[in-house]
């Protein structure tokens, strides 16, 4: 696909791992999830690719000197697993009407419900045009961009893509000196509740914080065991393979932070985080022993404490979870964009999304009234 007017060419690649890492990362910036290391680790570990239902179909925009000037991590999906934006009902309806919903084109970071850039570089309109061309030329039902940032969403809006909203809960640092300073901004009841939860969770346990090279192979063995436990309970089987953790342990060491809970010298739970330029991202958690409030301690409170100490502005602790609200995490709207070919199906989805967005906006407004801060929802 060539665009003579602007002298650029759109291409499809069979993944990120075979592309020049420096050229890719110049477009990706400092977001760890769209960086070459993270995306190629997914491919090289077999977490995506053959047999997973995630076939890499990376979108590339090159100039007339074959320089990469735009890119998007994209996949042909044979199912709707691992996306965290649920369109199973759309697939069922389309297929009951005689259509084939799968494969679909998915622009996303697999298994990662973290809002961020998806249209990399300074050619977002060319990337969107390329995605539309892939769908139309190959008679695919649809293209989807999940957890897209506001800038990318604005580009999708220019082309008339449909929008879907979701809700996540993020913690924001308002210049707190320490964790107690944060607690002082909460209502007395919530402040006492959190202190009680932390005491209960920490009883009889030692807590260890490891960063980058401090995370040894034995720690990855434990983290894999914890991740398997969570994956088997939530999804039936883990999305990520064991080698994925080894790969990011080498290629992303400086961005990794591991919290461990240890009893009698043996880890019983862990939470793995990725460190962004101003945000701590909680990603994988698990435990081999059930301890009351331990999930909150490892995934929420320790993350907040670390973010304050290291002057980060926010903590994102994963998808969903209204229980985060009472712990100082605030509701934010996430966005996904959808290009649907069939006019009748598009019309039905558009009507549904209009109603859903209105309901979610109302929900967020209500949730903000339930925040535990003393003065107001924005205190």
Summarize this structure as a short list of keywords or feature phrases.
globular; 379 residues; Aminopeptidase; alpha+beta; 16 strands; 2 domains; 11 helices; disordered N terminus; five-stranded antiparallel β-sheet
Protein architecture, described:
There is one protein chain. This protein has 379 residues and is of the alpha+beta class. The chain folds into two domains: 2-167 and 333-369, Gcn5-related N-acetyltransferase (GNAT) (Aminopeptidase, 3-Layer(aba) Sandwich); 174-312, 3-Layer(aba) Sandwich (Aminopeptidase). Helix content is 37%, strand content 26%. The protein has eleven helices and 16 strands. The chain has helices at residues 21-28, 36-44, 88-96, 124-137, 150-158, 179-183, 188-202, 217-234, 242-251, 294-309, 343-369, and strands spanning 2-3, 8-13, 54-56, 58-63, 68-72, 74-77, 104-107, 120-121, 142-146, 162-172, 206-211, 256-263, 266-275, 279-287, 314-319, 330-340. The strands form two sheets. Strands 3-6-7-9-16-10-15-14-13-12-11 form an eleven-stranded mixed β-sheet. A five-stranded antiparallel β-sheet has the order 1-2-4-5-8, sandwiched between helices. Helix 2 runs antiparallel to helix 9 (242-251), helix 7 crosses helix 10 (294-309) and helix 8 (217-234) crosses helix 9 (242-251). It starts with a strand and ends in a 10-residue tail after the last helix.
């Amino acid at each position: 696909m060539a665009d003579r007017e602007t002298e650029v060419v759109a291409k499809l690649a069979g993944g990120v791992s075979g592309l020049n890492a420096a050229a890719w990362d110049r477009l990706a910036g400092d977001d760890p999830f769209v960086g070459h290391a993270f995306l190629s680790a997914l491919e090289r570990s077999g977490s995506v690719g053959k047999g997973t239902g995630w076939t890499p179909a990376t979108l590339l925009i090159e100039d007339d000197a074959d320089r990469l000037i735009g890119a998007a991590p994209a996949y042909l999906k044979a199912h709707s697993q691992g996306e965290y934006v649920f369109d199973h009902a759309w697939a069922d309806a389309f297929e009951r009407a005689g259509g084939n919903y799968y494969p679909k084109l998915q622009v996303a970071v697999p298994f990662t419900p973290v809002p961020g850039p998806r249209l990399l570089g300074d050619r977002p309109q060319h990337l969107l045009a390329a995605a539309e061309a892939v769908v139309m030329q190959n008679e695919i039902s649809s293209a989807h961009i999940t957890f897209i940032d506001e800038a990318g969403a604005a580009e999708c809006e220019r082309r008339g893509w449909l929008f879907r909203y979701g809700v996540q809960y993020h913690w924001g640092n308002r210049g707190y000196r320490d964790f107690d300073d944060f607690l002082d901004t909460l209502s007395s009841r919530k402040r006492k509740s959190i202190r009680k939860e932390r005491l209960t969770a920490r009883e009889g346990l030692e807590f260890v914080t490891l960063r980058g090279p401090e995370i040894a192979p034995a720690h990855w063995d434990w983290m894999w065991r914890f991740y398997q436990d969570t994956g088997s309970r939530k999804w039936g089987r883990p999305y990520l393979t064991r080698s994925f953790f080894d790969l990011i342990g080498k290629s992303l060491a400086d961005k990794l932070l591991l919290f461990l809970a240890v009893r009698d010298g043996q880890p019983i739970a862990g939470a793995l985080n990725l460190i962004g330029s101003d945000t701590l991202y909680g990603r994988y958690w698990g435990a081999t022993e059930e301890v009351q409030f331990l999930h909150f301690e490892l995934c929420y409170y320790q993350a907040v404490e670390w973010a304050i100490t290291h002057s980060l502005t926010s903590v994102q602790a994963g998808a969903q979870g209204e229980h985060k609200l009472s712990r100082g995490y605030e509701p934010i709207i996430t966005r996904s964009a959808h290009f649907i070919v069939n006019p009748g199906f598009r019309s039905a989805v558009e009507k549904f999304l209009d109603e859903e967005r209105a309901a979610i906006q109302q929900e967020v407004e209500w949730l903000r009234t339930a925040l535990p801060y003393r003065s107001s929802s924005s205190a």
